[in-house]
Structure formats: C-alpha cells, structure tokens
Specification:
- By secondary structure, this protein is an alpha+beta fold.
- The protein has a domain of 178 residues.
- Helices cover 17% and strands 30% of the residues.
- The strands form 5 sheets. The protein has a 6-stranded mixed sheet with strand order 2-1-8-7-11-5, with no helix packed on it. A 5-stranded antiparallel sheet has the order 3-4-12-13-14, covered by helices on one side. It has a 4-stranded antiparallel sheet with strand order 16-15-17-20.
- A hairpin with a 5-residue loop joins strand 7 and strand 8.
- The N and C termini lie far apart (126 Å).
Length: 343
C-alpha cells in the first residue's frame, strides 16, 4: 500500500488582505487621476491663454503695420475728400475720406470700433507733377510737365487747393508730346477706376493749369473691424468688398481706437478722442487696443469684472457664457509718420 506524503500547510493572501489592497490601489488611482486632471486643466488654460496672446499680438501687428503707412502720398494735400469711381461697385461713384486713418465708433456693432486707412505705395512718394492744360472733366486729356513713373494700372490723384481730389488710373506709360507729357486714362478693360465717357467725377469746374497729379502706385484702402469674434479686413478697392470681407484672425472680440490730436499746431498731441469730425492734419497718432478671448470654456466663471482697453478708457463687460472665458488685452500707440513728416 502506497503512503501519501504529508501535506505541508501553504500560506497565501486572505480575502480581507486582498480587499484592503484593492481599496488602497483604488485610492492611489483616484489621487493620481485627480492630480492629473488638475494639471491637465492648468495645461489647457495655459495653452488657450497662449493662443489668445498669439492671436492678439498678430492682430495688433496686422493693423499697426498698415497704420504706419497711412497717409503716404497724400499728406501734403489740402482736399478733404477724394472723388472715386470703381466699375462693378454699387454705386460706382463714391467718396473717400482723406483722413489717413478714420475711426468709426461702435461699428459694425456696439462695443467695438472700425478703422479705415489708406496710402499709396508709389516709388515716387509724394512728388507730384504739374498739370499744364485745363482739365474740365474726367474724360479730358491729361497733360503734365513730367510723366515718368505713371505706369499702366497705377492710380493717380488729381488735386488743386481745397477742391475735392479725384482718383484716376493710368492706362499706359506717360508719353512725351512736345513740352508736355500726356498721361492716358482710358476707361476700358482692366482700368476699372476710370469712369466711362459722359460720366464726370471731377469737382465743378474741373482742374486748371497748375493743379497737381500725384502717382499713388497701388492705392491701398483697407478697413479693419470685428465680427463674430474674428478680426475682419475689407479691401475697399474690390467691388464686392462690402459683402465679402476676409476673416483675418480668430478669437478677437473687440477693437477700440482713438485719435491723438494736435489742436494748436505745436506738434504735440493735446487730446485723445474719437470725435466724428476731425481735421486731417490734427491727427498725429492713433491709439489702438484690442481684446482676445481664449478658446477654452472654463467650468466656472473666471472673468466677471469689466475689462479696460486702457487705463481710464472704455471697457468690455463679459456677460452670460462670455464670463467662462479668459481674455487678453493689448494696446499700442501708432505715430502717423507721413503726417508728422509733412506738417
């Protein structure tokens, strides 16, 4: 008969010990998960804040870069408006303000401003030719004392004292004819800035000998505003610009701007405002501020107080769901150098 070996007692984990270990592991996992969630939330807040900062800086730079050029080629003019024509626009005849930068408060919606600017980029700058024969209407022959630089498609500005200026488009290079230069401005094909024969956009009486013709090159006319939390830009040289603005940078909720005005002609800014009626040569600088919003919707309201665009200035007051976002404010002052250099 075979004998069984003696069974040696074996030791292991009891049920109670296993349950305690599971509880400890669960508590440790819970602590780790909570710590991870906290740091992940902080990371999302930091990243979204950095994105808002980047958007604000890019938007501010985009507007500031154009503002620094504002008024190029027109600072020496005395007219207060520019008569213009653009084929395909409704209506095709319109008027451009000669303010290097024009501010429209609470446009297109309350709480944010619209900034419109223009400048020329001609290599000849503000050096103007002199008209040598009378030009009674916009279809008349245009003769000047010097016609170099008026390249095909370049825009030209006619001016005479305080009369309204007029924008026309060269259709070919200036041609030397005797003592004068003849600058063609035919209203056909690609030259959409020249009105058709029979349509006059010159001021009453036109321009006489001695009036000026300034080469504007590619006339830049841009409009910046905020719509649906995006910085929009409108190229006013395009016929459909009114209905087809371009979204430039997202996350921008508001823009505010002010003129820096020299009211006593001493070359020093005396007043900061955004008055509707300002004298063109009073405006020496533009104060610009914008507010960018992060893309992260926080669990709790994080922005309940009104935000100042600049100390003592207008404010942006988030309400409702807007209080669950964080905001960045950036502002700058842009000197209008083309006005400063040509008082």
């Amino acid at each position: 008969m075979t004998e069984r070996p003696f069974l040696v007692a074996e030791r292991g984990f009891s049920l109670i010990e296993l349950m305690v270990a599971v509880v400890i592991a669960m508590l440790a996992s819970l602590a780790i998960s909570q710590t991870f969630a906290v740091f992940e939330g902080q990371k999302r807040t930091t990243v979204s804040g950095a994105d808002a900062q980047d958007n604000a800086l890019m938007a501010l730079h985009a507007i500031e870069r154009e503002l620094r050029m504002a008024g190029m080629g027109t600072a020496m003019l005395d007219c207060d408006q520019i008569n213009a024509y653009l084929e395909g626009r409704v209506p095709p005849q319109y008027v451009i303000s000669t303010l290097p930068a024009a501010i429209e408060q609470d446009t297109p919606a309350a709480g944010s401003d619209q900034v419109t600017l223009f400048y020329g980029d001609s290599r000849y700058g503000a050096v103007a030719a002199t008209i040598t024969t009378a030009m009674p209407d916009s279809s008349a022959v245009l003769n000047v004392n010097f016609g170099l630089g008026f390249d095909p498609s370049a825009l030209m500005l006619l001016s005479e004292g305080t009369k309204p200026c007029t924008l026309l488009q060269a259709s070919q290079e200036g041609q030397k004819t005797g003592q004068n230069w003849h600058v063609q401005h035919n209203p056909s094909g690609q030259f959409t800035r020249n009105p058709p024969n029979g349509t006059n956009i010159l001021p009453a009486g036109g321009y006489g000998p001695g009036a000026k013709l300034t080469d504007m090159g590619e006339f830049v006319n841009l409009q910046f505003f905020v719509q649906n939390s995006e910085l929009m830009v409108r190229d006013l040289n395009l016929p459909d610009s009114a209905t087809n603005p371009i979204a430039l940078i997202g996350g921008i909720v508001a823009i505010r701007a002010q003129y820096g005005r020299d009211t006593n002609a001493d070359g020093v800014i005396d007043v900061w405002d955004n008055a509707a009626a300002v004298a063109r040569k009073e405006v020496l600088a533009v104060r610009l501020s914008l507010i960018a919003r992060s893309g992260l919707f926080e669990r709790d309201p994080v922005t309940t107080a009104a935000i100042e665009f600049w100390p003592g200035g207008p404010t942006f007051a988030p309400a409702g769901d807007d209080q669950y976002f964080r905001y960045k404010v950036y502002n700058t002052i842009v000197p209008l150098r083309n006005v400063l250099w040509n008082p």
